[in-house]
Protein backbone atom coordinates (compact mmCIF):
# COMPACT_ATOMS: atom_id res chain seq x y z
CA UNK A 1 0.00 0.00 0.00
CA UNK A 2 2.85 2.33 0.79
CA UNK A 3 4.25 1.89 -2.71
CA UNK A 4 0.91 2.72 -4.29
CA UNK A 5 0.53 5.81 -2.14
CA UNK A 6 3.99 6.93 -3.23
CA UNK A 7 2.79 6.65 -6.87
CA UNK A 8 4.97 3.60 -7.50
CA UNK A 9 2.00 1.72 -8.92
CA UNK A 10 3.96 -0.79 -11.01
CA UNK A 11 6.00 -1.86 -7.98
CA UNK A 12 2.91 -1.98 -5.80
CA UNK A 13 0.98 -4.01 -8.40
CA UNK A 14 3.56 -6.81 -8.23
CA UNK A 15 3.45 -7.09 -4.43
CA UNK A 16 -0.29 -6.61 -4.05
CA UNK A 17 -1.04 -9.18 -6.74
CA UNK A 18 1.11 -11.74 -4.95
CA UNK A 19 -0.44 -10.82 -1.59
CA UNK A 20 -3.96 -11.20 -2.98
CA UNK A 21 -3.16 -14.60 -4.46
CA UNK A 22 -1.52 -15.96 -1.32
CA UNK A 23 -4.18 -14.63 1.03
CA UNK A 24 -6.95 -16.07 -1.15
CA UNK A 25 -5.27 -19.48 -1.21
CA UNK A 26 -4.85 -19.59 2.55
CA UNK A 27 -8.46 -18.64 3.23
CA UNK A 28 -7.76 -15.24 4.77
CA UNK A 29 -10.75 -13.78 2.95
CA UNK A 30 -10.89 -10.44 4.73
CA UNK A 31 -7.24 -9.68 4.08
CA UNK A 32 -7.49 -11.03 0.52
CA UNK A 33 -10.38 -8.65 -0.17
CA UNK A 34 -8.38 -5.73 1.16
CA UNK A 35 -5.38 -6.71 -1.00
CA UNK A 36 -7.73 -7.03 -4.00
CA UNK A 37 -9.07 -3.50 -3.47
CA UNK A 38 -5.57 -2.08 -3.14
CA UNK A 39 -4.47 -4.08 -6.20
CA UNK A 40 -7.36 -2.62 -8.20
CA UNK A 41 -6.39 0.86 -7.02
CA UNK A 42 -3.09 0.40 -8.86
CA UNK A 43 -5.02 0.01 -12.10
CA UNK A 44 -5.06 -3.79 -12.20
CA UNK A 45 -8.24 -5.67 -13.00
CA UNK A 46 -8.99 -8.54 -10.64
CA UNK A 47 -12.16 -10.59 -10.91
CA UNK A 48 -13.97 -10.92 -7.61
CA UNK A 49 -14.05 -14.44 -6.32
CA UNK A 50 -17.47 -15.77 -5.62
CA UNK A 51 -17.94 -16.71 -2.02
CA UNK A 52 -18.76 -20.36 -1.74
CA UNK A 53 -21.05 -20.72 1.22
CA UNK A 54 -20.47 -23.67 3.44
CA UNK A 55 -23.22 -26.25 3.30
CA UNK A 56 -22.28 -27.73 6.64
CA UNK A 57 -24.22 -26.45 9.60
CA UNK A 58 -22.28 -25.34 12.65
CA UNK A 59 -23.22 -27.10 15.91
CA UNK A 60 -25.24 -24.08 17.04
CA UNK A 61 -27.04 -23.81 13.69
CA UNK A 62 -27.87 -27.53 13.81
CA UNK A 63 -29.22 -27.22 17.35
CA UNK A 64 -31.35 -24.19 16.44
CA UNK A 65 -32.60 -25.92 13.27
CA UNK A 66 -33.55 -29.02 15.27
CA UNK A 67 -35.49 -26.97 17.82
CA UNK A 68 -37.20 -24.94 15.10
CA UNK A 69 -38.08 -28.19 13.36
CA UNK A 70 -39.71 -29.34 16.59
CA UNK A 71 -41.99 -26.30 16.40
CA UNK A 72 -40.40 -24.00 18.97
CA UNK A 73 -40.61 -20.25 18.40
CA UNK A 74 -37.55 -17.99 18.27
CA UNK A 75 -38.10 -16.71 21.85
CA UNK A 76 -38.51 -20.31 23.10
CA UNK A 77 -35.32 -21.42 21.31
CA UNK A 78 -33.50 -18.38 22.64
CA UNK A 79 -34.61 -19.12 26.20
CA UNK A 80 -33.38 -22.70 25.98
CA UNK A 81 -30.01 -21.75 24.48
CA UNK A 82 -29.54 -18.45 26.33
CA UNK A 83 -29.62 -16.46 23.06
CA UNK A 84 -31.66 -13.45 22.05
CA UNK A 85 -34.56 -14.05 19.66
CA UNK A 86 -32.74 -11.81 17.18
CA UNK A 87 -29.68 -14.09 17.26
CA UNK A 88 -31.92 -17.12 16.74
CA UNK A 89 -33.53 -15.40 13.75
CA UNK A 90 -30.12 -14.57 12.28
CA UNK A 91 -28.90 -18.14 12.73
CA UNK A 92 -32.08 -19.49 11.14
CA UNK A 93 -31.55 -17.28 8.09
CA UNK A 94 -28.11 -18.84 7.73
CA UNK A 95 -29.62 -22.33 8.13
CA UNK A 96 -32.21 -21.59 5.43
CA UNK A 97 -29.50 -20.42 3.03
CA UNK A 98 -27.26 -23.42 3.70
CA UNK A 99 -30.08 -25.93 3.38
CA UNK A 100 -31.67 -24.19 0.40
CA UNK A 101 -35.05 -23.85 2.07
CA UNK A 102 -37.43 -20.94 2.60
CA UNK A 103 -39.58 -21.86 5.59
CA UNK A 104 -39.51 -23.49 8.99
CA UNK A 105 -41.84 -26.21 7.71
CA UNK A 106 -39.10 -27.50 5.44
CA UNK A 107 -36.50 -27.83 8.21
CA UNK A 108 -37.59 -31.18 9.63
CA UNK A 109 -37.86 -32.86 6.21
CA UNK A 110 -34.54 -31.45 5.05
CA UNK A 111 -32.70 -32.41 8.24
CA UNK A 112 -34.23 -35.89 8.07
CA UNK A 113 -32.99 -36.35 4.50
CA UNK A 114 -29.52 -35.14 5.45
CA UNK A 115 -29.38 -37.63 8.33
CA UNK A 116 -30.19 -40.45 5.91
CA UNK A 117 -27.56 -39.33 3.39
TrEMBL record:
Keyword DNA-binding in record: yes
A GO molecular function held by the record: DNA binding
Domain of life per record: Bacteria
CDD domains for the chain: LuxR_C_like
InterPro entries per the UniProt record, alphabetical: Sig_transdc_resp-reg_C-effctor, Tscrpt_reg_LuxR_C, WH-like_DNA-bd_sf
Residues in HTH luxR-type domain copies: 50-115
One Gene Ontology term from the biological process aspect of the record: regulation of DNA-templated transcription
Key words of the record: DNA-binding, Transcription, Transcription regulation
Stretches that traverse the bilayer: none
Organismal lineage: Bacteria, Bacillati, Actinomycetota, Actinomycetes, Jiangellales
Pfam families for the chain: GerE
Protein name per its UniProtKB record: LuxR family transcriptional regulator
Amino acid sequence: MRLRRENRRADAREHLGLAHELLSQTGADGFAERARREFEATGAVVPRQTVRPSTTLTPQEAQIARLAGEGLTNPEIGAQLFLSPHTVEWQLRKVFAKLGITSRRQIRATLGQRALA
